[in-house]
Protein: S-acyltransferase
Amino acid sequence: MTVVDICRRSSSLSNQTMDLCFRSFPCLSDPAQRSSSCLKLVLLLTHLIYAGVLFLFDGDLVEKTKKEPWFTALYLLLFVVTLGQYYAISISNPGYVLDVMKNLNKRNVVHTKTSEASNQPASSKNGSIVISIEGSQSEKGVAGSNATYWSKLVSGLYPPGSTIRTWTCTYCNVEQPPRAKHCHDCDKCVLQFDHHCVWLGNCIGQGNHCQFWWYLCEETAVCIWTGFLYISHLTAHITMVWWQDAIMILLLIALSISLIFLLLLLLFHSYLILTNQTTYELVRRRRISYLRGIPERVHPFSEGVCRNIYSFCCSYRFEPIPTPQEIEEKSRQYTCSDVVTCRCC
Structure:
């Protein structure tokens, strides 16, 4: 037996193991999903390590838990809610254009059929009208008349004179409303596309941007609380065994660096919310057709701080491209009367 034979056997054994793993877990066969799954596992293990080291080395925290269980219960509740929010966002729908188009098409079909049936005599029983739609006919309606309905809806959001080429995706051939973009990682068009998060393995768009912001708040709160517990232990037991202190000090340094990035990310997305922007629009402003030529200090989709927050949290809608008159009005410098009348709100 030569070295080459041993290498061949080991490589074939590893290939068989990988094939068995891919058959057992089909999601891991995709390199992008495999990378995302690994990052999710790393994030979960990181959280568990920080909490485990804390309860393993900090005897005072264990004693305090026995006397005041509500303190640790609140910390663990926030810990679990944060991880739950993370995994919920990772499988959430960011607002895929194709899904929204199909839903609107189906609603329009039902509305059209209902209105037609109400205008025609129909048999009724106990005063209730019975409407039946065959599958083949409903599919024809979705593919035919409702495509025109979606086209009219999208075209009404763009300035007059725009051609269908300007709002049709060149990759999936879907008519995009303003602020939508095709994500190359998901291979789908996303409404109000913000960015594709590699840690989540999912896009951040109109459908889950609010959830993402709350997750950042919760993750920041967990990091601050965990850092406070680490600092409290180190200041109270500075003369303990050196290797225990070294482990907690290294973890605290890594936690501090992560907390800085989290705070910056939270402030950045808060600014985007207040001005009704997305990360993609801010970074690629000069490459986006409907933002080209608009001064950088002007936010064309902003309707004031209060209305921006309300739209972000409570209202999901298609936003038309502002007219030149609206852009000119938003470009106007603020005056004392504008401050008094709360123009920015």
